[in-house]
Design brief:
This protein is 47% helix and 6% strand. It is mostly helical. It has two domains: 63 residues, no CATH class; 31 residues, no CATH class.
């Protein structure tokens, strides 16, 4: 698949997750391409099958993914909130710079 200008980003994300990126579309009911839930799941950094292996129709899978949280973003938000709380309480946290970026959080 030719990812065009996104090629480098796609390859980096594949390296982070340790698996190839699924095809972004799949054939719809009328033969036209539609968004593939496995692609969304992959972009969110979730384990393969986290949502797509559930017995849900494609639209319900996409709804669940759309209402979900990207684990790396959640980790970063929690780190920021903990820092704010520590500042309010006048204490320190044991969070280093790597934790603040959420990079150590993986979906696996």
């Amino acid at each position: 698949m030719n990812w065009g200008v996104y090629e480098a980003a796609i390859r980096r994300w594949e390296a982070v997750l340790g698996r190839p990126t699924p095809h972004p579309t799949q054939p719809g009911n009328h033969g036209r391409p539609v968004l593939a839930p496995a692609f969304v799941e992959h972009l969110m950094g979730l384990p393969a099958g986290w949502v797509t292996h559930l017995s849900l129709p494609r639209t319900a899978q996409l709804r669940a993914l759309g209402n979900g949280v990207v684990p790396q973003q959640a980790a970063y938000a929690v780190a920021l909130l903990l820092d704010d709380l520590a500042e309010l309480l006048g204490t320190t946290t044991d969070i280093d710079d790597r934790s603040r970026t959420g990079q150590e959080v993986t979906a696996a």
